[in-house]
Specification:
Pfam families: LPMO_10 (PF03067). This is Chitin-binding type-4 domain-containing protein. Keywords: Signal. The protein is mostly beta strands. It has one domain (22-180). It is built from one helix and nine strands. Strands 2-4-8-6 form a four-stranded antiparallel beta sheet, with no helix packed on it. It has a three-stranded antiparallel beta sheet with strand order 1-5-7. The longest helix is centred in the C-terminal third of the chain and has 5 residues, at 132-136.
Length: 181
């Protein structure tokens, strides 16, 4: 799952989640799942009926993110731009969130199949360099006192909607899928 997906905040583009499961980042929504959120319907995001399967084409994600997977969960063997990266099928430049640097934000991840483990969230603040090195610069911390709070890993729960909070880094601006002031 991107891997579930990226927060690809880039949600892909901004944050990257690393998990070994099936799921989708729903708040803020990732590029492949924007079509599921009614408030974005007027922007005509393309549907990805496999948006819970962004896990490197079925490859197990190593504990070294980006080593065998595209940054947004696409198979690394796919030609660039991959479907979930800037310029790919599911990237339409839709802003899915508006946040302030340093803010604690609410997130939601929908797990459709859980293999347990943990999720890690990363933020790339430069859409021109949407690559693993950019994501590695900002590993986000879990906030709010719940599971994983104070660490960078959110334990993956059972199937269903998981809610948590993330602390955005202070002192940065920009992203491609979220707006950070």
């Amino acid at each position: 799952m991107q891997h579930l997906f990226v927060f690809a905040l880039v949600l892909c583009g901004g944050v990257l989640i690393a998990v070994d499961a099936h799921g989708r980042f729903m708040k803020p929504p990732n590029r492949s799942s924007i079509w599921r959120v009614p408030e974005f319907a007027g922007q005509n995001p393309p549907p990805n009926y496999s948006d819970n399967e962004l896990y490197c084409g079925g490859l197990h994600q190593a504990n070294d993110p980006g080593s065998n997977c595209g940054v947004c969960g696409d198979p690394s063997s796919s030609p660039s731009p991959r479907a979930n990266e800037i310029g790919g099928t599911f990237y339409k430049g839709i802003i899915t969130g508006d946040y302030s640097a340093g803010q604690i934000i609410d997130i939601e991840v929908e797990l459709t199949v859980s293999h347990l483990g943990a999720m890690e969230f990363r933020l790339c603040t430069n859409p021109q360099t949407e690559n693993q090195a950019c994501f590695n610069q900002n590993v986000l911390r879990i906030a709010g006192g719940g599971p994983g709070s104070g660490t960078t890993k959110l334990p993956a729960g059972p199937t269903g909607l998981m809610r948590s909070k993330l602390q955005l880094p202070s002192g940065f601006r920009g992203c491609s899928d979220i707006r950070i002031r």
